[in-house]
Amino acid sequence: MMYASFMNIPPSSPTDISVDQLKRDWEQLHPLDRAKAISSLKKSGLSNRQIARQIGRGESTLRHLLLALRAPAADLISARQQNLSTNELVRRAKADAVRRTALRKSNLETNRKEHALAGSQTICEWVGQHWRSGPSGEQIVKEARRRMIESSLDGNLPKVDLPDHPFAPAITIERCKPQETLEDSGTDIGWYGRWPARWIIFVFPDLYVADEALQKAEQEPWRL
Question: Which uninterrupted H or E stretch holds 153?
Answer without folding.
Answer: helix 137-154
